[in-house]
Design goal:
227 residues, mainly alpha, 9 helices
Length: 227
């Protein structure tokens, strides 16, 4: 069976990223199964049950690299304009996850206003796009949300393109999945069951990436479609 060349543009545009997410979903599920299966197979009277948690460390390190490689491969398959456009956008998956890991625990504390540096024009633009994609994601996740209306407002009122918002939403959710795997690795030795739960949270995030990377703005207007 072959895929039609007339498949939705964004699905083809992000084909390598989608494929990478699908493979990672299987690996995350297998990592969780390596914890749950031995527990399920152990005799009821058995106390301590040995489980494998090494997969969580591997996935935490592998996932952002795999997603960056897939995104780079996707860009290389298309025009120079797209490559330059993507290069000018947000940080790589690996850089975003590293920022999470190195985050200052006191970063949310209030700082005197005089000590806050004003963002550059480029930083402000990136922050604006991230806020826009967060608004869109909220609409997709709410039970009665209207993602098409929100996307339309972001395009007509705020001046973003639909592709910008959708692509940044993809990046945001992909990083959420990578962060869940970081948490899984951190919890692996102390609490394997919680680590497995984080791994399954990554599965949900990566499945959402697949949906968002496949959808076009026109698809959001279909009543039966849920992003």
């Amino acid at each position: 069976m072959t895929t039609s060349l007339e498949a939705p543009a964004r699905r083809r545009r992000h084909a390598c990223l989608i494929a990478a997410c699908v493979l990672l979903i299987g690996e995350c599920a297998q990592a969780a199964a390596a914890v749950y299966r031995p527990i399920a197979e152990a005799p009821p009277e058995q106390g301590e049950v040995p489980v494998s948690t090494v997969e969580f460390d591997v996935l935490a390190a592998l996932a952002p690299k795999a997603l960056d490689h897939a995104a780079t491969t996707d860009s290389a398959r298309w025009s120079l304009d797209i490559v330059l456009e993507e290069a000018a956008r947000a940080f790589s998956f690996e850089q975003r996850v590293r920022r999470y890991e190195e985050a200052d625990p006191f970063a949310d504390q209030e700082v005197p206003e005089d000590d806050v540096a004003m963002p550059t024009g480029e930083q402000a633009a990136r922050l604006g796009l991230m806020e826009a994609s967060e608004r869109f994601l909220t609409a997709t996740r709410e039970e009665h949300g209207d993602p098409l209306r929100v996307l339309t407002e972001l395009v007509t009122v705020d001046g973003f393109t639909a592709s910008e918002v959708l692509d940044d939403a993809v990046r945001t959710v992909a990083v959420e999945g990578c962060v869940a795997l970081v948490l899984a690795a951190q919890m692996a030795k102390a609490d394997p069951s919680t680590a497995a739960e984080h791994s399954l949270e990554a599965v949900r995030s990566l499945a959402e990436v697949v949906r968002l990377a496949s959808v076009d703005a026109d698809d959001l207007s279909a009543p039966a479609h849920s992003v």
